[in-house]
Each structure stands twice: as C-alpha cells, then as structure tokens.
Amino acid sequence: MSNLLSKYQKPNGEGLIQHITPENAGWKYVGFDAYQLTKGQTITLESGDRELCLVLIAGKAKITTSKESFGEIGQRMDVFEKIPAYSVYVPHDDKVVVEATTKLELAVCSAPSQGNLPARLIGPDDVSVEYRGKGRNKRHVQNILPETEPADSLLVVEVYTAEGDTSSYPSHKHDTASDTETYLEETYYHRLNPAQGFCLQRVYTDERDLDETMAVYDHDVVKVPRGYHPVAMLAGYDGYYLNVMAGPIRQWKFTWEDDHSWINTADYPKED
C-alpha cells in the first residue's frame, strides 16, 4: 500500500480515526486528525505551537477555548447535505474542549503558528461557495479558511465532486517556491456517497520519481507532499473531500500540467 494513503481506522477511546502529523507524513507543516464522537463524548485538545481549524464535518458540538465559549454549534448532520460547515479557529498556546451534543464527525486541521490571532467562530455565512470547471470536470467548493481570511499558515476548503466527474484537475502542483508557485503540503480527507464506494487519486511528478495511484475509500486520507494530484469519481458514487494546505507562505499559487491544461480552454468539452 502506498505510504501516501492513510486508511480509516476504527475509533480509539478518544474517537480518533485519522492522525496525520508532520513527523509521520515526513514533511514540515500540515497536521490532520479526524474523530468520530458519540453523543456526550468530550475531547480536550492543546494547540501548542500550532494553530487549529476545527471543522464540524457532520453533527453538533459545544466548543470552548481558554478565552471563548461558542455554545452549541453545527447544522449539517450529513456531509452530503452540501451546506457550509461550522468551524472554529483556535490560535497557538490555547486549549479547546469539544463536547459532542449529537453524533459528531470532527476534523482538526493544524499548522505552525506564531501570530496573535484570537479564537473565532467560522459560521456558514462566513464560508464563500463557488462552482468551478465545466463538462465532466466540475466541483462545488466551500471555502472555510481561504487566504483572504486571517490565519498564520492554514488553508482549508471543502470540495464536492459528482459521480463520474473529476476534480483537482486539470492536474496542477504547488511544490516549489517561485514567482508562479508556492510550496504547500496538502491532505485530502475523503467521504463517499454511498459509503461503500471508492474514488481514484493519483499523485505524480513530471519526472515520475513519484507516481502513485490509489483506490480511496470512505474516511481515507491522501497525503500530497509534492506533484500533481487529480481525483476521479466513479459512476454511482459522489465524493467529498476536505483539503488542508500549509507551507512557508500562506498563498495558493499553482502550476498546471502542460499536457492537460487544454481542459481549461474552449476546446473542452468537445462537441459531439
């Protein structure tokens, strides 16, 4: 199995199903945890020298930091309702307590932080929604923590892709520091509907010194340390993924792969 694919694990005592750190991923910036909590279950998180973005994938919770209490938040009970999530930004050197008030699927995104931003609620009205692509290359995007909103390192976005469509395509990369590209590590947390489905994700470089194609199932995580990373949905199964990106510069600048950039032109979709 590819070391870029982190398979779903049954919840441990704290409800943890995914645990990606810079150390076990072999990179410097992105961390990602996912939890499945039962109603009434409580977890406590310490941010340390990192900022956190807690995303309520599905369900409701009471969230309290050392200085703020957000009460009960959440409205999306199923991720495929396609409505923006409630999220909470937590700065470094803070503590956060999450109490699940319903069954809860929670994502905890993290990256290095040295700033002085306060904890804040990111409600559905704070999330911009857009539709990208055309033909069989379309997706529904919900921007939780884009570069236009305050954070030190994190970029967080949700993407929905319909059955038979592609996304994160045409193939693009963001693995070098240049005038046209920023270095950003990235994780993809995948959900499938119906849940027994799978999608395909490839991670590869121009030189093909990295070239992995993975069958990705519900609650799996794909790590993208470098290279291109398109996703393809199979017939009958809709897809969702939560993207977490971070790097030395908090800006999303990328390069299209030349061979496939024509998908962005008027030549696609082809006429019948």
TrEMBL record:
InterPro entries per the UniProt record, alphabetical: Deoxy-glucuronate_isom_IolB, KduI/IolB_isomerase, RmlC-like_jellyroll, RmlC_Cupin_sf
Pfam families: KduI
Entries under Gene3D superfamilies matching the protein: Jelly Rolls
GO molecular function: 5-deoxy-D-glucuronate isomerase activity; glucuronate isomerase activity
Keywords from the UniProt entry: Isomerase
Keyword Isomerase on entry: yes
Gene Ontology BP terms: inositol catabolic process
Name of the top EC class for this enzyme: isomerase
EC number: 5.3.1.30
Keyword DNA-binding: no
NCBIfam families, per database record: myo_inos_iolB
This protein's name: 5-deoxy-glucuronate isomerase
Native source species: Vibrio eleionomae
Origin organism lineage: Bacteria, Pseudomonadati, Pseudomonadota, Gammaproteobacteria, Vibrionales
